[in-house]
Amino acid sequence: MTTLHFANARLIDPEALTDAPGSLSVSGGHIAAISGTAPKGARVIDCGGKCLAPGIVDWGVKVGEPGERHRESFRSAGLAAAAGGVTTLIARPDTLPAIDTPELLEFVTRRAAEAAPVRIRHMAALTKGREGREMTEIGFLRDVGAVAFTDCDHVVTDTRVLARALIYARGLGALVVGHPQDADLSHGASATSGKFASLRGLPAAPALAERIGLDRDLGMVELTGARYHADQITTARALPALARAKANGLDVTAGVSIHHLTLNEFDVGDYRTFFKLSPPLRSEEDRKAVVAAVADGLIDVISSMHTPQDEESKRLPFEEAAAGAVALETLLPAAMRLFHAGALSLPQLFRAMALNPARRLGLAQGRLATGAPADLVLFDPDAPFLLDRAKLRSKSKNTPFDGQRMEGRVLATFVAGKQVFGEVC
Amino acid sequence: MTFRARHLLGIEQLTPEDIRAVLDLSDRYVELSRRTIKHSDALAGMTQINMFFEASTRTQSSFELAGKRLGADVMNMSVAHSSVKKGETLIDTALTLNAMHPDLLVVRHPASGAVNLLAEKVNCAVLNAGDGRHEHPTQALLDALTIRRAKGRIQRLTVAICGDIAHSRVARSNLILLGKMENRIRLIGPPTLMPTGVAEFGCEVHDDMAAGLEGADVVMMLRLQKERMDGGFIPSEREYYHRYGLDAEKLANAKPDAIVMHPGPMNRGVEIDGELADDINRSVIQDQVEMGVAVRMACMDLLAQNLRAERGRAATGGLYA
């Protein structure tokens, strides 16, 4: 294994929350030293003052394997991830069929390892077929590598089933990821209730459906003592409930998608289906509140919620179109909008995109520290470009940022000290 | 002539001048339609396709008659029963039709925004004949014409819109149009049938019918959209009729010369008393149907003029633009 030395870098350390010039050496796939001079025989990479940060740990990526490989394969998702500075991709189990047996999990684990240049870890379904009736073999699935358990956007409505699954998961120390939405209130909705949705005549769910769903989930966590992560908190009125649960010592964390931090409901405009997400985009007040919650650490994780959809499923009337957007490659440039707007610092962003998700999932990634895996991203936060969706590496091109001016480009990505993207070195 | 639009997708895109232009031309088509020889050649040689993805008798026949009186070749397609059932998407259906070179496409669709989507994919003029809960522009225009002819003006009136506002595209379009023409709007209905965010619409909201009708010049009733509801918005039709059905007693709260409107088809005994609906001194419901044909003639005439001008510019390479 070669030794690398990154000289003249701007080190973004999400643990110490520092952003300072420095250098870093890599040996044997791990970070060998922070600062200091190049070790003997090391290949020196002059970073030219650009940012070096721990690679992004993207929690909640939909890959179309098995079942929808025309939308995204492990290979295309892996290439997109590498180009986006994502070094660990946490895949969702909402596939066809759902990943709910150890056999299936072993299969996708093997496929992912063969096909993708970045690390891929998997979540498994919490209930069989994500149907909310019977828990999966949580023990076996954990043994073959499931990092968390979730039914994704299928909310388990039967609280008795959920209680048993949570208690069983607690016994194994397994993490359960919930989708805080009241399933009945949000049934069939494609927008957030309010003036905009009413004028557009779109079926809508109240923003409070999220708080109601979260309150229920937090009650279940209190009942069972389970380890719980809310996949997406996107509304201002859900935040006090989350803060209370954390203050009361419940083992709870929460995430948010990059789209809910950078877009609002008005972006839908004239029924633009690339802006149809699940949950739907929120008001500007909600967006600002959620950005502030990431800044003060109440919301722990920012993820891409990468959801590839083919052209046909988006070229439909808004309420019939599929929800979701691709974002593996646009996560970092979009996050730079928050940085340039002065809302979040680079260390704060990487705390939410790398350190916190890795910690919560029990992974060693996400840190700029001696001994940590050398999963790194070198990027220029100021490089401007015009986003052309046709150039995305994902098989699906459904990005809401098409044609928009972005700032912030990944220059190179390293996994275990090996370069997987970029030209500089 | 101010009306410059390529399509008629909603009232939202129209200016007050556009609206006045449509109403003025409509007045002339009302006169034409009352003659024995009801024919003009405004659309002669043009092809109009009525594409209805949702069942409709009144609107479809109104558009058909309007097109025929203007000399267009009119074709009706009830898409609800044909290729859509075989899995064809909206866009494919649109492209198929587009290949037949229609000049005017009249579209109704159960999904909000579907007509906007379709308009992006075809190169003819598209008229929205109702999309989901979004807009129904020709209905709002015909209502405006009816009001203007009955009241002599279409501004500074107090208009009460009553009933199922949440599910009604007619209410959306009327709300926008009446707002643009500077009228005072009141929305009356049970809170479950009010759209969310209604407080920000800039109109008064009432759940008591008597208070809402107080001093109104125009009372617009809406149909209870049973087919658009997914259940449980009102406890029963008889309770709804008791609280929100328009009868002579409730109407007494409005101005003595207030007119009563309904876009049809009516549910007699649910939202409106049958006798009142037929009272020729108060009800203008039959007038609305007549105005409907004239307004649709005017809209199609104006769009056809713009389409011809656009094609002319394209053919001359912008030489005479």
Explain the layout of strands and helices.
The complex is a heterodimer of chains A (425) and B (321).
Chain A: E1 4-13, E2 18-27, E3 30-34, E4 43-46, E5 51-54, E6 56-61, H1 74-83, E7 86-91, H2 102-115, E8 119-124, H3 138-143, E9 146-150, H4 159-172, E10 175-178, E11 191-192, H5 195-200, E12 204-205, H6 208-224, E13 227-230, H7 239-247, E14 252-257, H8 258-262, H9 284-295, E15 301-303, H10 311-314, H11 331-340, H12 346-360, E16 376-386, E17 405-415, E18 418-422
Parallel strand pairs in A: 1-4, 1-5, 6-7, 7-8, 8-9, 9-10, 10-13, 11-12, 13-14, 14-15
Antiparallel strand pairs in A: 1-2, 2-3, 5-16, 16-17, 17-18
Chain B: H1 16-34, E1 47-52, H2 58-69, E2 73-78, H3 90-98, E3 104-109, H4 114-119, E4 125-131, H5 137-151, E5 158-162, H6 169-180, E6 184-188, E7 204-206, H7 209-213, E8 218-221, H8 237-244, H9 248-251, E9 259-261, H10 274-278, H11 285-315
Parallel strand pairs in B: 1-2, 1-3, 3-4, 5-6, 5-8, 6-7, 8-9
How would you describe what is shown here?
The complex is a heterodimer of chains A (425) and B (321). With 425 residues, chain A is of the alpha/beta class. Helix content of chain A is 29%, strand content 24%. Chain A contains twelve helices and 18 strands. Chain A has helices spanning 74-83, 102-115, 138-143, 159-172, 195-200, 208-224, 239-247, 258-262, 284-295, 311-314, 331-340, 346-360, and strands at 4-13, 18-27, 30-34, 43-46, 51-54, 56-61, 86-91, 119-124, 146-150, 175-178, 191-192, 204-205, 227-230, 252-257, 301-303, 376-386, 405-415, 418-422. In chain A, the strands form three sheets. In chain A, strands 1, 2, 3, 4, 5, 16, 17 and 18 form an eight-stranded mixed β-sheet that branches. The longest helix of chain A is centred in the middle third of the chain and has 17 residues, at 208-224. The two termini of chain A are 16 Å apart. The mean pLDDT of chain A is 96. Chain B starts with 15 loop residues before the first helix and ends in a 6-residue tail after the last helix. Chain B is globular. The model of chain B has no long low-confidence stretch (mean pLDDT 92). By secondary structure, chain B is of the alpha/beta class. Chain B contains eleven helices and nine strands. The A-B interface holds A 188, 193-202, 204, 206, 270-271, 312, 315-320 and B 12, 89-91, 109, 111-114, 116-117, 131-135, 166, 169, 172, 195-198, 200-201, 230.
